[in-house]
Predict the structure.
Amino acid sequence: MTRQRGPGAWAAGPALAAVSVVVGCRVAGTDGITPVPQLLAFLPWLLAPTGFALLCALLARWWAGLVWGVAVLGLLAWYLEPYGTAGEPGGPPLAAFRVLTSNVEFGRGTPALVPVIRDRHPDVVFVEECEHTCRATLERDFAHTHPYRRAVRAAGSHGSLILSRFPLAPAAGVPGTMGMPGAVADVHGHAVRLQLAHPMPPLPGQVGLWRRELGRLHAFAAGREDTPTVLAGDFNASQDHAAFRHVLDTGLVDAARLAGHARTASWPARTASVVGTQIDHVLVSRDFTATGVHFLRVTGSDHRALVADLMLHQRG
């Protein structure tokens, strides 16, 4: 006599199937199509529906579902680990400096960002979605402390700005829908390539554009020469996105990972302390160590600001 599945099994099956599609894409190294890229950003939080499905399968005595759920849970736990390797530079330290990156959400977070910069004293500031008023405010308020700047002057989310205490030489930025300026900083006599990152988000209907713009950041990272590099900003991608991992595969390392904060959320700011994802990053070449990282609330923005203390080392 065939045993009929109970309601617990019927609840567990769809939940496990949905999570399995997302985890399967993670295993296969692809971001798939909507809604997979959006769900991949919150991969650790898929532990919740998987746990629910396991409980339902257990109560229903659905043993195949229980085995299925344990397998999915194991894969999720495996992928909680930070991606890639993080070796230490071989040479002695040369220069320490502080970097801050902040998406100010169409400029609305600018009034709150000003005191953060004054309080945290970053040497280099990357600002995404810095429209005309944002740029004018920051350039005016920090004209003496950060006299060097590179900007993409544009309205809304398309504007971006790099402010620096260090002299900046022009460098080609990365083309994109939103501004991604670049520069070469003279950090205490050492050239450091700076590049702001702000590809389009993986909105439904725009996943291809998101993938292409992250591909341009990958091309920048892969094509960089021996100059120490800092690539920072709102990547609209986490370590669970294949397109972002391709950028890391060029040899760049996430400063948050180096400082032990590989899974600290930066978006959405309102719920980041409970539920969120890390899509704001400071990526550095292997010339650097990160001695500290902090995620800060910026009122008016849906992103946390990210502050990273970096140490440049001589190549061993």
Notes: The chain is about 35% helix and 25% strand. The chain has a mean pLDDT of 95. Residues 81 and 236 are 20 Å apart (CA to CA).
